[in-house]
Specification:
Layout (H helix, E strand, L loop, with lengths): L15 E5 L5 E6 L9 E4 L9 H7 L4 E7 L2 E6 L5 H17 L22 H20 L2 E9 L2 E8 L7 H16 L6 E5 L2
Parallel strand pairs: 7-8
Antiparallel strand pairs: 1-2, 2-5, 3-4, 4-5, 6-7
């Protein structure tokens, strides 16, 4: 009787499709699996920051990968400007696919999520700012393969963290000023005067 070797059969049947976004150096690798709990995100601006993220560590070992971002059911990878996506996208996609199909954890130990969760100690203004970011801005930014999280508020100035595809994106400054700043000024007149991006 013939036996079949099942050791190489994938644990999960993983499908990945690619989505472009406003940052030409970033690409969104969307999977059919939920990778990260709702509302959480993990941004790795370099290999050192990915100590608790085995998949991100492996992606940084691939040539031209400069940043990795996890959220929901997708991974956003940012490449260097020296290459075009068409040259490396299949290698990145196949690496993510085989890693996930083996059922390996993409996060281990004390990985800390980024988010805009409201704390009891927050002032009323900060609670309102976080609520607006969460309800009106986060979904649009996620669509583009990135994330935004509250950093600080002081005397009318809101600082936010732009992550994933938003970090280093040519259009992120326009989004920040024309979109986010205008919305917060309109919804919180007298409380918000300016919005700035805090780099990670």
């Amino acid at each position: 009787m013939e036996t079949t070797d099942k050791t190489k059969a994938p644990k999960y049947n993983v499908h990945i499709y690619l989505e472009s976004n406003p940052n030409p150096n970033s690409l969104k690798f969307v999977t059919n699996l939920v990778l990260i709990p709702e509302g959480e995100s993990f941004d790795f601006p370099d290999a050192e920051s990915a100590a608790h993220a085995p998949l991100a560590q492996e992606l940084f070992e691939l040539a031209h990968v400069e940043r990795v971002f996890y959220m929901s059911n997708f991974i956003t990878v940012t490449k260097s400007q020296e290459v075009e996506w068409v040259e490396i996208q299949d290698k990145v996609k196949n690496h993510i696919k085989s890693f996930l199909e083996e059922g390996k954890a993409i996060l281990v130990n004390e990985a800390v999520a980024n988010g805009t969760a409201i704390n009891e100690e927050d002032s009323e203004t900060v609670k309102k700012i976080k609520g607006i970011l969460d309800e009106y801005i986060r979904p649009a930014v996620e669509q583009d393969g990135g994330a935004i999280s509250f950093h600080s508020y002081d005397e009318g100035v809101v600082k936010v963290l732009l992550q994933g595809s938003c970090s280093g994106c040519p259009s992120s400054t326009v989004t920040l000023k024309a979109g986010i700043e205008n919305l917060l000024k309109t919804m919180l007149p007298g409380e918000v005067n300016e919005v700035e991006a805090e780099s990670v």
